[in-house]
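Hello forum,

I keep getting stuck at the same step: I have a sequence, I want structure tokens, and every attempt I make locally crashes halfway through. Rather than fight my setup again tonight, could one of you with a working pipeline run this one for me? It's a single chain of 220 residues.
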Amino acid sequence: MPPAPLPDWSAIDTVLLDMDGTILDLKFDHHFWLELVPAKFAAANALTVDAAKARLMPLFAAKQGTLEWYSIDHWSRELDLDLSALNRAAREHIVWLPEAERFVRRIRALSKRLILVTNAHSETLAVKDEQLDFSGHFDAVYSSHPFGAPKEDVRFWERLIEREPFDRTRALFVDDSLPVLRAARAFGIAWIYAIAHPDSTRPRREIEEFPAVNAVHELA
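Reply #2:
Ran it on my machine without issues. Output:
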């Protein structure tokens, strides 16, 4: 993957950052949804973990890219499990990606408007913020759920800019999700970067569709 051209910070007023996989290590979410939830579901339904995964993975796949996929409340009802309690019990595994906190502090020092935009449900967002206390680094924090559309949907961006006016030609957005980045590009955000290594326990991805960096701190 060739090095991405660095942003021209003099041409940027607003910095929008994703949470999971951009500033926080996606290993927690992968572990939670692919290991902890199937184990809990297996125990509750007298299944092996492999059988639980075989039952759950198609359910998860069917909801990807929708608000329901990101909703602890939805899956608690769907699976008849207390996933909020499970999420809180595992919170010590929530960590920053390497150097991400330093990057956030550096952008704050540049006097840019710094905004966190996440698909995480408010419950999940609250648990992660309680663990790492990151929201204070940002001028504003937005979950997509109150907007009625996920970040993969251009309608989210149209509704966000009504709440948080910014010049999209002088905005930078970073995310690890290609569908999300496509929606942001369609919306007209000028500076878009992908994160190629969102999970520290998995190999780096090869990304050609967008300028990509291994980690967000490489941008500044």
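The first strand starts at residue 14 and ends at 17. If your local run keeps crashing, start a new thread with the error log.
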